[in-house]
């Protein structure tokens, strides 16, 4: 964003659910998924991370020149992929990061250090300015300029209440508006199981103005919202509701601005949502509805939905893969991130 002052930033708070809690409190019974084209997600190319204990490329982003992917990892850094020869390099990090203090070991796992070192989740570039916006679970909304380096915290509270679980982010490339998410007012990422176990509904939708660094709450009481993405026509956000296995549409422009409505029932528990190249969205599914641990080693990894909320394509793969985000690029390549894996996967349609 070339001129941050005066640009509006909208926030939708979300709740990221623990896998165990999802199994204990499943969403509504699965409905048959329409017959669609199916992608074999098990036939993927891996872009492996360096370091045996490094994990978690949740979000996948590309800059305005098409370079990348970029992804945040478990030690608090944002990495950039430089091709098979050079592989990953450090692109950005937040306040409190140090290589010595944040490198995980078997006696000091990332779960212990992430509250200090940070945990980048959602990533999005503003292409015109080259700025990268980072939703860090502990630091809040951050921004790093072209070329990377140490990120600056833009927002870490709303109405005097700290952002405790900043999660996802998207950018309106025309206006420079940035939409980001905060999962809970009560629990941090390390306590994500408590968000579900207690039925926490302290999610908030907020609008932030960078000039004054104030955050205005727009809506509350959403049930387990997670990822979000702005629509191709920039009139609404699509928000993933993990517990209910649904997508919600929240209007940001037009006569319905400030209201929300159901968009889709999903065949699994959604995580992040990303706009595809056809006016719809790719939705990463962490787990299918009522999925059993036995049986065939295959489950839904993601679904593509159209602008009307209909499932038009599916991706299936091994149960060992629990994707958090799927990003579509020109040429039919799909980039897949996961907080549990030591690589970014690349799948060709």
Automatic annotation (TrEMBL):
Q: Which residues form a coiled coil?
A: none
Q: Where in the cell is it found?
A: Vacuole
Domain of life according to the entry: Eukaryota
Q: Which residues form the Strictosidine synthase conserved region domain?
A: 167-255
Q: Where is the signal peptide?
A: 1-29
Where is this chain primarily localised? other
Q: Which GO terms describe its molecular function?
A: hydrolase activity
Which GO cellular component term is one of those annotated?
Answer: vacuole
Q: Name one Pfam family in it.
A: Str_synth
Query: InterPro entries from the xrefs?
Result: 6-blade_b-propeller_TolB-like, Strictosidine_synth_cons-reg
Report residue spans for region: Disordered: 190-209
The UniProt keyword set, sorted, is: Glycoprotein, Signal, Vacuole
**Which family is annotated?**
Belongs to the strictosidine synthase family.
Q: Which PANTHER family does UniProt cross-reference here?
A: OS06G0623700 PROTEIN, STRICTOSIDINE SYNTHASE-RELATED
Q: Which protein is depicted?
A: Strictosidine synthase conserved region domain-containing protein
In its UniProt entry, the species of origin is given as: Panicum virgatum (Blackwell switchgrass)
């Amino acid at each position: 964003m070339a001129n941050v002052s005066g640009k509006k930033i909208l926030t939708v708070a979300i709740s990221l659910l623990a896998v165990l809690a999802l199994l204990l409190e499943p969403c509504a019974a699965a409905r048959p998924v329409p017959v669609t084209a199916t992608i074999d997600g098990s036939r993927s190319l891996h872009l492996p991370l360096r370091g045996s204990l490094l994990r978690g490329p949740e979000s996948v982003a590309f800059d305005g020149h098409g370079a990348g992917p970029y992804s945040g990892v478990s030690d608090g850094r944002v990495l950039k992929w430089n091709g098979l020869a050079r592989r990953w390099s450090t692109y950005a990090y937040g306040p409190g990061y140090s290589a010595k203090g944040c490198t995980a070991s078997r006696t000091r796992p990332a779960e212990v250090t992430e509250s200090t070192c940070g945990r980048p989740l959602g990533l999005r570039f503003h292409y015109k300015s080259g700025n990268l916006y980072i939703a860090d679970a502990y630091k809040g909304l951050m921004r790093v300029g072209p070329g990377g380096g140490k990120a600056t915290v833009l927002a870490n509270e709303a109405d005097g209440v700290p952002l405790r679980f900043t999660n996802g982010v998207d950018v309106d490339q025309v206006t420079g508006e940035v939409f980001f998410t905060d999962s809970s007012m009560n629990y941090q990422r390390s306590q994500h199981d408590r968000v579900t176990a207690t039925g926490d509904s302290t999610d908030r939708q907020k609008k932030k103005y960078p000039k004054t660094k104030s955050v205005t709450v727009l809506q509350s009481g959403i049930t387990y919202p997670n990822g979000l993405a702005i629509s191709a026509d920039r009139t609404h956000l699509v928000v993933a509701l993990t517990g209910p296995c649904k997508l919600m549409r929240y209007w940001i422009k037009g006569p319905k601005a400030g209201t929300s409505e159901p968009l889709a029932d999903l065949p699994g528990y959604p995580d992040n949502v990303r706009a595809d190249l056809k006016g719809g969205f790719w939705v990463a599914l962490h787990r299918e509805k009522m999925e059993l641990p036995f049986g065939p080693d295959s489950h839904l990894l993601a679904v593509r939905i159209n602008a009307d909320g209909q499932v038009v394509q599916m991706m299936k793969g091994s149960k060992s893969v629990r994707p958090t985000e799927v990003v579509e690029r020109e040429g039919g390549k799909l980039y897949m991130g996961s907080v549990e894996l030591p690589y970014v996967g690349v799948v060709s349609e």
